[in-house]
Amino acid sequence: MTLKIHIDDSAAPYEQVRAQISEQARAGVLPVGYRLPTVRGLAESLGLAANTVAKAYRALESDGVIETRGRNGTFVAAAGSAAERELASAAQAYVERARRLGLDETEALTAVRDALRAAYGK
Predict the structure, then answer these.
(1) Nearest to 14 by CA among 45, 54, 66, 42
(2) Is the sign of the CA dihedral 60, 62, 64, 67 positive or negative?
(3) In the chain, which ranges are E strands?
(4) Largest CA distance in the chain
(5) Burial of 120 per CB tally in 10 Å (0-12, 13-18, 19+)
(6) 36: which strand partners?
(7) Could you list the pLDDT tens digit for every one of the 122 residues in the chain?
(8) Dihedral, CA atoms, 14, 19, 22, 25, nearest 10 degrees?
(9) Would you say 39 and 4 are in contact if contact means Cβ atoms under 8 Å apart?
(10) Which neighbouring-strand residues pair with 67?
(11) Given CA atoms 21, 27, 29, 34 in this order, what sign does their dihedral have?
């Protein structure tokens, strides 16, 4: 597993850790069942505070990308389909909310594009 933290990046270090592990897991670079380093171990190797890595791991676990098995460690989960289901559910909730607010399809899509640009920097 290779992670690089860019101090001059606008994204917080924990978000960089979260995004890189998530991308590597989804791309298959980190296969299902791969054991991740301990929070302290990864924090030391990246020069980050343990709480920063712990925050990233909590977010990844919440997203279904990794799973913690107590003292046995933290592993990449079979998250592809679970993540897609969660995303579809969130999209459906967004559409329902947009309709309740009286927005048309163009306005709803514009809001999503703006949010994506803000999140991904494009």
Answers:
(1) 54
(2) positive
(3) 35-36, 66-68, 74-76
(4) 50
(5) exposed
(6) 74
(7) 889 898 887 889 999 999 999 989 888 888 888 999 999 999 999 999 999 999 999 999 988 889 998 889 999 987 556 667 677 778 888 999 999 999 999 999 999 999 999 988 86
(8) -110
(9) no
(10) 75
(11) positive
What is the number of other CB atoms lying within 10 angstroms of the CB of residue 21? 24
User: Which residue in 30, 56, 25 sits closest to 43, CA to CA?
Assistant: 56
Encoded tokens for 46: 């990246």
What span, in angstroms and rounded, lies between the C-alpha atoms of 89 and 84?
9
Rounded Cα gap, residues 36 and 13, in angstroms: 18
> What gap in Å lies between CA 95 and CA 30, rounded to an integer?
33
Here the tokens at position 5 are: 């933290």
Instruction: Look at residue 36 and give its three-state secondary structure.
Output: strand
Instruction: Supply 53's token pair.
Output: 């890595």
